[in-house]
Design brief:
The protein is of the alpha+beta class. The protein has a single domain (12-165), classed as Aminopeptidase (3-Layer(aba) Sandwich). Helices cover 27% and strands 30% of the residues. The chain contains 4 helices and 7 strands. It has a 7-stranded mixed beta sheet, with helices on both faces. A hairpin with a 2-residue loop joins strand 3 (73-83) and strand 4. The protein starts with 22 loop residues before the first strand and ends with a strand.
Amino acid sequence: MRCIADTAPRPYGGRVPIGPGPLLREFRPADVTLIVGLVAEALHERYDPSLYATLSEQWPDGFLVATDLTDRPIGFLLGVNQVEHEARVLMFAVERDRRHQGVGSRLMETFFTRCRERGLGRVTLEVRVSNSTAIRFYSRYGYSVTDLLRGYYSDGENGYQMARSL
């Protein structure tokens, strides 16, 4: 017999879904391999794998990972807080076959909530000028272009800096 005061077992391995949509949790070092793959496929960039763990230590709540029910990362948002009262979305990617299913929206909305909880009033990000899909997505979330960044990406492509108030 179980006492009614006992804690019930938590589904999904201790992660709790926040309403409908993907499961979200903080970054874990074991996520690096899948995140490196997401960055290469979605962002066309390659970074030293140690970068992810280093950045996650600066603001653990700013590094959100969306997972499937098996706890495999399917998307992530890596945010940093290096400027007073401002957050920056450093990297944001969702697996190609998981796009248009609310994964990116859940990541972005949860990130905004965490920024507000931290007392931040503005969020910035950079995006390739050729990535019209991402620009439309960011625009729907209140971002607007604030600057053209010439030769910003490793392949020489220009970027836009976008920002929004919280």
